[in-house]
Amino acid sequence: MNRRIPAKAAMKEAPVVLYTHESIQEAAAKMYHVQNDTAPVLNEEQRVVGSLSADSLMTAMMKGLSPQKKVTDIMDRQVTTVHELEMPLQKLKWHPPSLPVVNDDRQLSGVLYPDDWLFALEKESRNADSLYQALIDHEHQAMLLVDHKETVVLANKRAKELFNLSAEDLTKKRFSELVVNDQFRSLLSDEANQMTDKVTINNKKYRVMKQSIAAAKSSAVYLAFRFTVADPVSFPDENEDWKEKAEQMETIIEFAHDGIVMVDKEGFITMINQEYADFLEVDAEEVTGKHVTDIIENTRMHLVAETGKPEIADIQPIKGDYMVATRLPIFKEGKLEGAVGKVLFKNLGGFKALKKRMAKLEKELDNYKGEWQETNRAKYQFNQLIGKSESWLKAKNLAQKAAGTDSNVLLLGESGTGKELFAHAIHNASPRSPGPFVKVNCAAIPSDLIESELFGYVEGSFTGAKRGGKKGKFEAADGGTIFLDEIGELPIHMQVKLLRVLQEREVEKVGANAAKPIDIRVVAATNRSLEKMIQSGDFRLDLFYRLNVFSIQIPSLRTRKEDIEALVPYFLKKLSARLGKEVSVIDNRAMAALLHYEWPGNTRELENVIERTVNVVDSYETITDKHLPEKITGMKAAEEPKTLAEQLREAEKKAIFETLQYTNGNKSKAAKLLGISRTALYEKISKYE
């Protein structure tokens, strides 16, 4: 039985939608107007990038946050969405008030409320029940199914015509109300399966055949009656046919629903079908007569039997599984007599081992997926590229235009200028934003491993290769963006392979016999002059042309010092939040010192200086020039002689950066001059920056 109800089938139009450019005040007005608890937040491309709850909004206002702040400052970025075609049960079991429904492009399609999906699921279940009705409607003879209280519980089309009653009226009747005849009373009392002699109903003669139907190991007994136009000649064949039909009916009773249980008004079990008993690992006969709360965990059957209030499509945890349960009260002549419950499952008992294995794999997959998404996602947006100088805005505007295309981008600029931030922002503003963002630092990978890291390898391709092979960075970026930082450090032989990837849009693993098509966009960055490298033969001209479609020069901080006054409060806010402090004020002398300094390490150095300063001062203390490093203020403080280790560290740092300056940033040449490996050099640079 197909019970796959995708989110799209039950979603509704979102009552309120917020956008990243809207203020907290605008969001509050929208959410108050519709009295909504949670609203999705969309970017300009209508993609879901977060959600905002009424509680978060209220908390922000109580803390005195400016109403003009953007919703992006307080929204939850870890929003859970569900695809239009996805089964949402696993996500609904965490009881979210609603789930944004998205299409393939992660654009908002609607909102799914748990109750709407569960009612859709119940509706499909009811549709499935109609199949069983259709089965007996196909019979040419009138058929009735009577329970142990002589109440009609099922009737086919011919029976409705015979007694001239609707299905609703017929299934409320007791059998003795329909047929007043001593022979019928004997049929009810006699345990044997039998057939009456000729009887008259509505001026027509019929034979009535009775068959007892009991689910295996269950004390519940149903009586099936078939009314056949009297014809002595057909009696023997009809009797055999009826036995066969009765067996089919018995199967329907046992398997028409996944799990059925009935209780009296006190909550004691009067019937449980074998499927349900097997799942609970109990004996159907033994549990009959016991209180339902002693047999079924988390049940509410006794409450429905007590209150008479139905519960439709409720989520009920049973034996570690989440079941969909429906509980309906049973009335007799207007009086509450008990309740019947139905639990949707299908042969779960036979799949216990598989389920345990699936649960383990699902947990491992969720962990891996979370780690992978955290590693391979872009973190920064264009609104986090702080600055209003002409050169900065020029670079930012060009990057925004590049984001709207699918062309390759080459970011140029000194170390620490923010090239990686630009790469993140370009990806997040591009049509590829739902896909992965994979960062590769070409200078940090040892030359003997770079090919397998970038392109992956197949099992057995070399000594030490992992079983099953490994996916390379390019393959991991399929459908998204790959950021090749320090592209100028890529060896010549790897430049050839990269050129092939860009030209053919396919990647071949180490040891593979065939290439695999991939869909990627390349954003590359370097602090070196690629034109000079081309002249010296260190960089391929054809690769340069492939990368240099959108060339963006990121200005150094010393050429846009007017942006320091905007960057300092931005870094203070960011770092204070991270370090758990409240530091937001800097005096004029300290700011003047920052503006006067040349910043050879650019924005990265400025952020490091601000972080050091926040660590030094106390919360709510004003930053003065005394809190800044000596190299910025020019003031030499009295200090104790440094240890030998400290002096060696400073000497090493000085030697490294002077050598890099001598080689014009060429790390390979610098490493050779210093007598260390390129990887070791890169680690030391990261250590001292």
Automatic annotation (TrEMBL):
Residues 245-296 form the PAS domain. Keywords: ATP-binding, CBS domain, Coiled coil, Nucleotide-binding, Transcription, Transcription regulation. Residues 11-68 form the CBS domain. Residues 385-615 form the Sigma-54 factor interaction domain. GO terms for biological process: regulation of DNA-templated transcription. The keyword Transcription regulation applies. SUPFAM superfamilies: CBS-domain pair (SSF54631), Homeodomain-like (SSF46689), P-loop containing nucleoside triphosphate hydrolases (SSF52540), PYP-like sensor domain (PAS domain) (SSF55785). Residues 351-378 form a coiled coil. One of its GO terms (molecular function) is sequence-specific DNA binding. The keyword Ribosomal protein does not apply. InterPro entries: AAA+_ATPase, AAA_lid_NorR, CBS_dom, CBS_dom_sf, Homeodomain-like_sf, HTH_Fis, P-loop_NTPase, PAS. This is PAS domain S-box-containing protein. It comes from Salipaludibacillus aurantiacus.
